[in-house]
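Translate structure to sequence.
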């Protein structure tokens, strides 16, 4: 009997490792595609003789459609099956990548990027929800999420490097083709390695709530995209976002238990804390990367390539720390791991603000390493805290919501910290002000997560 139990455990572990490998492939191809396309913008512009507006939309159409589709992707995963929706998203993503690689015109390329964003919005929430269902023990789930989160850092570091190798030798179309073999491999593995799961209870589609939720997220993302080029469009988009959000809330309140955002999810204090901390984390993190690279290049301190290299300490430390974040959160408690991680990021931003434009950038590099340490310590446990405290039947929607917090924080952070940098006249003062604002938001998110998390950490479910 003991031998049989031991064999069963070994088979389960092997199955779980293959499942995690598949989910890591999914998140890596989506994130590499996001980071790699920025390097190809110049070559694409020269090939199509594209306007600056077309180039901006080649980059931003992914983020816009991704944001708009997140809530729908999470709901579809819960209702129709997480593996099924992940496979559909992967097929869309792969086909869209081929469209991008073969695009005869800039508008077709923009369409391909938009479809890629739709595929990503189906894949990412489904992959996070699958982790919630497959790893039913909190400790094992936290370790799996640490590895899953580390793949974001790998993609962040690998994307620009891969683009730098491909572009001179194979041209800009290769940056879209490179993810296709890995996407096909992920699809094949998903069919064998991922068990199907869904919410057994019937749930209405709630089309009106989906429409206004998508409109609110899309308008917010568009406001950030247009912040630097068209302030009037930004203001109009923000007004639409606020109105759509108000209508969304009004519709949701009337539907009670059948709401798209179930009260069962939003009533959990740990989930709300994870949302707040995630928003603060990406607000400061993405905003910092945008402003620091801009400050280095505007001051003549570093060029674009050197700026990318100088940002590596954050990615490398993140990659090293994130796989162990689950074990660390078990030892320290998820409260310390999540709030402490985001607090470390805030300290890192203060160091970057103080030393980013000094003659010796070593203090800024140290700040980047501290930021990467906080990101690696907190990102996996934050996802674990978000999905681990909700019912498995709602895992897809919980995963979608934590991604809404992530992309909303990133979008608002780039816009707000960029505006703070410009308002202060750029340079040392602009960098310091923007980093102080970013760290303040991160400290606030960490404090909210601390207050809303039980002292004993994640409860067994």
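Result:
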């Amino acid at each position: 009997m003991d031998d049989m139990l031991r064999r069963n455990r070994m088979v389960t572990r092997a199955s779980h490792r293959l499942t995690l490998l598949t989910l890591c492939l999914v998140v890596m191809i989506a994130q590499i595609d996001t980071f790699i396309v920025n390097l190809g913008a110049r070559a694409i512009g020269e090939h199509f003789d594209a306007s600056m507006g077309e180039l901006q939309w080649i980059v931003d159409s992914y983020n816009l459609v991704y944001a708009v589709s997140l809530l729908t992707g999470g709901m579809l995963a819960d209702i129709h099956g997480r593996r099924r929706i992940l496979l559909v998203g992967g097929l869309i993503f792969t086909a869209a990548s081929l469209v991008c690689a073969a695009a005869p015109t800039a508008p077709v390329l923009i369409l391909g990027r938009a479809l890629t964003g739709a595929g990503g919005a189906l894949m990412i929430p489904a992959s996070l929800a699958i982790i919630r269902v497959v790893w039913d023990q909190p400790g094992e789930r936290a370790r799996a999420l640490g590895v899953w989160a580390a793949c974001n850092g790998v993609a962040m570091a690998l994307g620009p490097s891969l683009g730098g190798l491909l572009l001179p030798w194979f041209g800009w179309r290769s940056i879209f083709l490179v993810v296709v073999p890995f996407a096909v491999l992920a699809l094949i593995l998903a069919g064998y390695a991922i068990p199907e799961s869904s919410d057994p209870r019937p749930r209405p589609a709630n089309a009106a709530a989906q429409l206004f939720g998508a409109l609110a997220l899309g308008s917010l993302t568009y406001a950030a995209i247009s912040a630097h080029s068209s302030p009037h469009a930004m203001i109009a988009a923000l007004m639409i976002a606020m109105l759509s959000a108000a209508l969304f809330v009004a519709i949701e309140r009337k539907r009670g238990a059948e709401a798209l955002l179930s009260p069962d999810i939003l009533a959990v204090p740990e989930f709300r804390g994870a949302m707040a901390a995630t928003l603060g984390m990406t607000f400061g993190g993405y905003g910092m990367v945008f402003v620091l690279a801009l400050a280095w290049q505007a001051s003549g301190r570093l060029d674009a390539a050197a700026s990318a290299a100088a940002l590596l300490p954050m990615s490398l430390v993140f990659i090293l720390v994130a796989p162990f974040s689950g074990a660390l959160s078990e030892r320290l408690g998820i409260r310390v791991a999540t709030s402490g991680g985001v607090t470390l990021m805030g300290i890192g931003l203060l160091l970057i603000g103080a030393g980013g434009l000094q003659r010796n950038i070593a203090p800024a590099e140290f700040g980047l390493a501290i930021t990467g340490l906080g990101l690696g310590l907190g990102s996996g446990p934050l996802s674990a805290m978000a999905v681990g405290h909700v019912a498995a039947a709602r895992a897809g929607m919980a995963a979608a919501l934590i991604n809404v917090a992530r992309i909303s924080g990133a979008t608002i952070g780039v816009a707000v910290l960029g505006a703070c940098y410009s308002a202060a006249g750029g340079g040392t003062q602009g960098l310091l002000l923007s980093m102080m604002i970013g760290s303040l938001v991160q400290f606030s998110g960490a404090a909210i997560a601390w207050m809303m998390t039980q002292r004993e950490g994640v409860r067994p479910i």
